[in-house]
Design a protein that fits this description.
The protein has one domain. It contains three helices and no strands. The chain is elongated, with a radius of gyration of 23 Å.
């Protein structure tokens, strides 16, 4: 697999690789791995949201924003509390 870069980006990559005592190839692999990891996490988050929306549409079960805020405030304060119960 090849990646074509414009000359400016290529020069910047070479300069950064030299500064880090790495090869441009290493930097590109690292960047691609980080990108793929990040995008996989985003896609998982998106799919979780779609599943939650579908479940809500089927059951109507939910917590209110106020209930979620109260729970999150307790967690932020260091209290290990159970999440609020879902209701219709």
């Amino acid at each position: 697999m090849a990646v074509k870069l414009d000359q400016g980006t290529h020069d910047r990559m070479k300069k950064l690789a030299d500064a880090k005592n790495r090869t441009p190839h290493w930097l590109m692999r690292e960047a691609i791995e980080q990108y793929v990891d990040r995008e996989e996490k985003r896609e998982t988050f998106r799919q979780d949201g779609l599943r939650a929306w579908a479940a809500y549409q089927l059951t109507g079960q939910h917590v209110t924003g106020a209930e979620a805020d109260t729970w999150l405030e307790q967690l932020e304060a260091g209290n290990d509390v159970e999440p609020p119960k879902c209701h219709s």
